[in-house]
Design a protein that fits this description.
Radius of gyration: 22 Å
Order of helices and strands: HHEHEEHEEEHEEHHEEEHH
Strand order of the largest sheet: 2-3-1-5-4-9-10-11
Number of domains: 3
CATH topology of the largest domain: Alpha-Beta Plaits
Shape: globular
Number of strands: 11
Oligomer: single chain
Distance between the termini: 30 Å
């Protein structure tokens, strides 16, 4: 039924494009010069819509159309890196808002002074995983540190992990005996009820050692469901990496999501530039990127991926 609904949305969308083209054609036939501005405006909107649909066609992976779980980890470097992780959290939340995606912070570990040590965000919406999957890797920031009394230039790193949201199915089987579930009082924001009651949940997967925590919801049941969602996705990623390693001789080198795989640099000093190292895409409008304007960068990466495949 989900597949049928998805195909029906696609059909309706392309029929809408066809109707817009027919309407524009009719306007052109009637135009005596007075409709030129209206036609130009409608044509520009249609071109943007078609460009977005062209990008959507590049997202043909099994999980590209689904929701995503995005996690940001601050790298070594103390306050500067934790502040950088917080800046990335803001950037991705603003990008998701611009795409009309629903976001939910499942777990957040604040930094000692500023920013955060880590955060996991659920991003819900069509193609959320397909787009965000191009953000996996290390993100590097170069700037004059606001936390350095000498105001020297610092380089900070943060790791971005993106997982597809995996439903409870046969692909990832989690048996009750494979995990331990601990409950404790939430230490974060969320109101008196959250902090007084045992609402936070920690799940430990014995075989892999994966530990997942969730404390942002008001009920223990909600936190457990969210933690299980994250655990399923992380186990799925391990399975995918194992498959990729098994066929690496046939498909070439497989790069795991880990430190060392730097994908993008954000330079705020001595000049302004954001550069994606995979595509060589560059922009001097760093503030727009940090405010969530990521589509051009992501689209360039998707086009490159399609060419390589």
């Amino acid at each position: 039924m989900k597949k049928i609904a998805s195909l029906e949305r696609d059909i309706d969308a392309w029929q809408s494009v066809e109707n817009e083209i027919d309407a524009l054609t009719s306007l052109l036939e009637l135009d005596d010069g007075s409709l030129t501005d209206e036609i130009s405006t409608q044509l520009e909107a249609l071109e943007k819509d078609l460009s977005r649909k062209e990008i959507d066609l590049l997202l043909s992976g099994e999980y590209d159309e689904g929701n995503a779980l995005l996690t940001i980890h601050a790298g070594a470097g103390g306050t500067d890196s934790q502040d950088w992780a917080g800046m990335l959290e803001r950037m991705y939340l603003r990008w998701a808002e611009s795409q009309a995606y629903k976001t939910d912070i499942l777990e957040r570990s604040p930094g000692e002074e500023y920013g955060l040590k880590s955060v996991t965000i659920s991003v819900e919406g069509r193609f959320a995983y397909g787009y965000l999957s191009r953000e996996i890797g290390v993100h590097r920031l170069v700037r004059l540190s606001p936390f350095d009394s000498a105001h020297r230039r610092h380089t900070s790193f943060a790791l971005v992990e993106v997982l597809p949201e995996i439903e409870d199915n046969d692909e990832v089987i989690i048996k009750p005996e494979d995990i331990s579930i601990e409950v404790y009082k939430s230490s974060g924001a969320g109101g008196q009820n959250v902090q007084k009651n045992m609402t936070a949940v920690r799940i430990i997967h014995h075989e892999t050692g994966i530990v997942v925590t969730c404390q942002n919801e008001r009920s223990q049941t909600q936190n457990k469901e969210s933690a299980m969602k994250v655990l399923r996705s992380r186990l799925f990623r391990l399975q995918e990496e194992a498959r990729a390693d098994a066929v690496s001789d046939l498909k070439g080198e497989f790069k795991k999501m880990e430190w060392g795989n730097q994908i993008r640099s954000y330079v705020l000093h001595p000049y302004q530039m954001v550069k994606d190292h995979r595509t060589d895409y560059e922009t001097g409008n760093t503030q727009a990127v940090l405010d969530g304007d990521l589509n051009a960068i992501i689209e360039a990466s998707l086009r490159q991926k399609a060419q390589l495949n």
